[in-house]
Write a structure and sequence with these properties.
This protein has 211 residues and is an alpha+beta fold. It is 21% helix and 18% strand. Strand 7 and strand 8 form a beta hairpin. The chain is globular and about 40 Å long. The N terminus is likely disordered.
Length: 211
């Protein structure tokens, strides 16, 4: 199942509610001392904890091997995503929704308003072609439970989720240190990729991003 197809609503995906704008022209900032997230762990470092079935039987609140990055606010999240794929013109989700529909619609307008998802803020940024949904998550266990129920797929950090649309976006985020969240029982990454149990039974986190 294609990542973009599974996340799409109609012809599009993406979403988030937020109150901050992105300093998108500062794409080289801050992996140190600028308020941005720490640099993503290298593939070699992450591979050191094992591949295939992961290195532990259970997930913890720290997420994917404890390596997942986190964001204190929406601006921080947008800047981090912008390090890997263009994430410009950040808008609060409701503001974006009011001006876009159809093929430009963003994932998550209804979900962000539903307490069952545990979404704290939703915003949308744009790359050269597609919107990207940015979600700050207050309760990742709730979020994963809702994702399983709705058969949705996400790129996730410790306390947030990202909904890319195009194949180029998805592959650009692959080395970002985020994990691919899926509850598809048939998901099987290629040899050499890491997979661990997520917080919810039947869901996994992986460093393999299918396109």
């Amino acid at each position: 199942m294609h990542f973009k197809r599974a996340l799409a609503v109609g012809a599009t995906l993406v979403a988030l509610t937020a109150t901050a704008g992105c300093g998108g022209d500062d794409t080289s900032a801050g992996s140190d001392g600028t308020g941005l997230l720490p640099p993503a762990p290298s593939s070699a470092a992450r591979a050191g904890s094992g591949s295939g079935g992961g290195d532990g039987d259970g997930a913890t609140e720290q997420g994917f091997g404890g390596d997942l990055p986190e964001a204190s606010d929406m601006d921080t999240l947008a800047r981090y995503v912008d390090l890997f794929t263009s994430c410009k013109e950040v808008q609060p989700g409701t503001q974006y929704d009011a001006a876009h529909d159809g093929s430009d619609a963003a994932w998550g307008a209804q979900e962000a308003a539903d307490p069952a998802w545990g979404i704290r803020e939703r915003a949308v940024c744009k790359d050269f072609e597609h919107p990207i949904a940015l979600l700050l998550v207050s309760d990742m266990r709730k979020f994963q439970t809702a994702a399983k129920k709705n058969n949705d797929l996400f790129a996730v950090g410790k306390n947030y989720a990202v909904v890319p649309v195009g194949d180029d976006q998805i592959q650009a985020l692959s080395p970002s240190g985020l994990a691919f969240l899926t509850c598809d029982p048939d998901f099987s990454p290629p040899s050499g990729h890491r997979t661990e149990k997520a917080l919810v039974d039947g869901c996994v986190l992986s460093d393999y991003f299918p396109s």
